[in-house]
Amino acid sequence: MLVSRRLLSLAKLLGFVSTFALLVHMGTVLYASRNNTSAHGIYQNWSDSLSNLGKYGGNAAGVNEYAPRGVKPVKGALVALVRNDDLFGMRKAVRQLEDRWNHKYNYPYIFLNDQPFTREFKQGIRDLTNAPVQFGQLEPGTWGYPSWIDQDKARNERETAKYIKGHSESYRFMCRFQSGFIHKHPLLKDLEYYWRIEPDVDYYCDIDFDPFLFMKKNGLKYGWNIAPSEYAPTVRTLWNTTKEFMNKNPQMIPDKNLLDWVQDDKGEYNMCHFWSNFEIVDLSLYRSPQYEAYFNHLDRSGGFFYERWGDAPIHSLAVAMFLRKSQVHYFDVIGYRHPAMAHCPKGSDVRGKCVCDPSDGWANDFSCAKRWRQVS
Ligand SMILES: Nc1nc2c(ncn2[C@@H]2O[C@H](COP(=O)(O)OP(=O)(O)OP(=O)(O)O)[C@@H](O)[C@H]2O)c(=O)[nH]1
Ligand SMILES: [Mg+2]
Fold this sequence. Notes:
Layout: H1 2-32, H2 46-52, E1 76-81, H3 87-105, E2 109-113, H4 119-126, E3 133-137, H5 151-160, H6 169-180, E4 193-196, E5 202-203, H7 211-217, E6 222-224, H8 238-248, H9 259-262, E7 279-282, H10 289-301, H11 303-306, H12 311-322, E8 328-330, E9 336-338, E10 341-343, H13 367-374
Parallel strand pairs: 1-2, 1-4, 2-3, 6-8
Antiparallel strand pairs: 4-7, 5-9, 6-7, 9-10
Helix pairs in contact: 3-4, 6-12, 8-10
GO biological process, one term: protein N-linked glycosylation
GO molecular function, one term: alpha-1,2-mannosyltransferase activity
Active site: 279
């Protein structure tokens, strides 16, 4: 009698322990799978797959986080020339950059303006980030007409131009500044690399690696994301002026270059360029004597004002003349949109941590991106 009562208590205890263990196990499974609905998840984890891409140096074991004001492995910064009126467009872009990338890295921002920044602008940006932010005004002589420009001729071009932004004087000042002076601004003095940013752009995907570090580790000088064709009426004499420069300075053009990317089989300019509203650049490129000589040659010719040369084709022609393909990187894993054109990393419209709308445009299929993949 006593034995069977003891057996009964033991059975009850065992039952209690196994029920408890089962509940703990179920709880653990439910907790572990709270983001997944199957063993592999119905969403493939974009950031994990990116982190596992050894070439980007992502860190699958946990992204390195850089302290907001701590020393960074690379002297890089996000840089924008911008107007006070662009505050809301700029806030949208900074918000996305922070959420997608910089909250982990805390690289500084530098904002430049031909006018003094308003208090609202500065506060509106500072509210969004823990990273250091600097605001600066342009140096005298870097915005406006150089002395040799015939301003009547420039006005005539503006008044008769039938191409986008053709009527704008300030747009031309902007393109000249971004081509020849931005890298010389005192706030950029200590930078090794800049990542150019603009208002109203979208960053579609998480970026779980440090593009500055990736550039540095791989000896890269120029990084791009979208490569369209330039609108020919804006650059009517740019190619001839560039050829003039090359003929005068053959010693500046290395044998291995990327000129095949910008010219067709007949040696004519094919209008291919990197869209410089996104560019990550080793600033030693723009600070080099050959870039300086090229910019001065173009500036003297007056094409910023007698036509409407953009900084994008100029940066791109410099890259084509002075760099080898191994120094230039197509950041095709960065999902990006500037009004009118977008790049969505392959496959990310249907999976992962990207929010691309395929109808926005698929720059990866543009002819200049295809040509890029073909040139060596
Ligand atoms: N401070 C200042 N910044 C300017 C001026 N014009 C353009 N910018 C900035 O220069 C960058 C390029 O100008 P955008 O007007 O965006 O030129 P875009 O990208 O060719 O043209 P959109 O299609 O209109 O974006 C942006 O960051 C602008 O905010 C100007 O007159 N003053
Ligand atoms: Mg823009």
